[in-house]
Amino acid sequence: MGNTPLNRDIFMKKIVESPVRRGKSLFMEQFFDPQSLAVIGVSPKKSNLARNVIKNCIDFGFRGKIFGVGTRSGRAFGIPILESIEAMPRGVELAVVLTPAQSVPDVIRRLGQKGIRRIILETGGFSEFDIGRKGLEDEILRIMHHYDQHLIGPNCLGIVNMKSGLCTPFVDYRYSVPTGSVSIISQSGGMGRTFFNVMENEAIGLNKFVSVGNKLDIGEAEILQYLLDDPETKLILLYLEDIRQGRNLLRIAANYDKPKIILKSNRGEMGSSTALSHTKAIATDDKVIDAALNKAGMIRINHTYEIGKVLKAFQIPVLKGPNLVVISRSGGHAVVAADACENQHFHLPPIPPTLVDKLKKHLRSNVIKLKNPLDMGDVYDMSVFLIAIEESLKQETIHGVIFILIYSEHTSGKDVRRIIPPLQELIKKYQKPIAAILISSADGLKKIKQQFPFPVFSFPEEAVEALAISYQHHLLSKHRQQSCTPFRIRFNPEVEDQIKRVKEAGRNFILHESLKMIETYSLPVPVYRLVHKNSEAVHFVRKFGFPVTLKIVSRGLLHKSDGGGVRLHLDTMAKLRQTFRELKIKMESLKDTEGGLMVQKMVPPGQELILGARRDSNFGPVVLFGLGGIFSELFKDFVIDLAPLNPAQVKKMVRQAKFFPILNGSKGQPCLDIDFIEKCLLKLSGLITSHKEIEEVDINPLIVYPKKGYIVDARIILAKTVN
User: CA 685, CA 691: separation in Å to the nearest integer?
Assistant: First the structure.
């Protein structure tokens, strides 16, 4: 399923340089709105899947010319079936292919000879079925490159465009999804159909749907670019099982304020226990994805059942602040909503005095406390609810309203439906969200959804969580662009010489070499020496004093504390000599001729942190910051961000850590040198971005004090080296 870099680079260049129609790439638009369509693999048999593509396009009102191509003549839903690709006229803009996998290279070649450059390959049975068929995919890519073709798929459902009537799924498409502004990119056709069901049930409109399948050629980045430029698409929902060319995807996403919601599955962490460093074990691929998506302003959801909630969240204006008013006909529901607001860190300010005065005139008895959340169980006039909602929205300090109404369809259904248009007008007038929780019979709610383009939430918690996602989008859009440039470090030939020497030896840096590299970037390291004799350790102590630590330096003992390779608090000559003899025996058992023992001056106790960096296969260099020491992997209290970093990003990264109060002097403790921590992170970011040969950097611990600190241990791992 691998992508050919040349093919994809050429394609992205086409998107940039293609003529533009209504602000969109013409090359990509002809995938979505072709003037002519060929369906390859059609037969008159009812069991034939390709004929469903023709039926769906006819049923959807596709305006272009349709050509059916098969191995024998006939008709499919009134469309003649041609017996060969060569029988088609030239100039067809899009072809949908549903033929056996082994036949596909020849089909692609013949389409190329006919001048057809855009292909949706819905056939399955490639490398997703058997990795041995990777050669078949490579052959297809070679042919496509020769004929300047591009392809969505294989193993996909293709495209649905509600406006143009293009509907290429090979299954009979019978959904009553209205036309709207939500567009979907899905790696799975089955998950796409799940989205259709949710949208049909919630009466939320679809604009475009793309099933990308194996992503042999065109992937999520190119489709996302097109949909972000598409004025008809207001919200983009993605379902992906893997992300390719992650940096490109993020670069595209970060340039647009449109809401981008992603459900990313396949998030297991199997294999982290075998990582070479603490950083690799902590900063797993899925955690890197979280950090990357957040930086690009993309909101990640974790469960399929959240889809409806997210879609409804963006059918109303984006929440631009944390202050809400809860207005409920039920006291119990008001309390539940208040709890949900607290869980999402929303605020419920006091009810405005103007609203209190107006509501007092409409209360039938004096049993309601006029506070936020507002229990209006004593009110049966629907217009009073509208007064309460509008008075709340008028307040500049109120950013949204949660409206909860429990009612009987039999007695109040018509009255409730009458207030929906005024609610829509209030949303339009004040450009603030009203999250309406309507609790009634299924029939009553169905009438509202069918009659009005108005999102209806089922539970207070659902509505509050939807507003939290909306507010998260607002914050991400507000902060996604930093004005300052990334921190850079100067080229250092000494570092390049160190990397070259270690790489030529076919190994990774060992401890003293890693510390030397760290020192090269002006990062503070306690004085140390690599020693091979007891007398050398004694000489070190006589020069620098006690206490000291002894550490085994060996390729065969990466996690030294786990293997008993570290001895601390050596403060007498007797302890030093005895410990040296013990570790020397252990060292000799490792049979490492390049290692030895390292004696290092101990530093006073302080706050232990871990700083790390690694090169992610999709997103490039990332930097990690967290609590350090031997328990770093156990507690996993850390923050990840993509490098290169600038000072503003590092400042934000440090303050995002849950343990930041510890650094900032909580509970009477002294404030630690946060400026020093930030400078270390900037230099680490520069190190990993400036030297592509470095795969991972692990600094654990960095011991920090109120003034400065020291890097006590470090590990540098090169790309594609033996351990």
Answer: 10
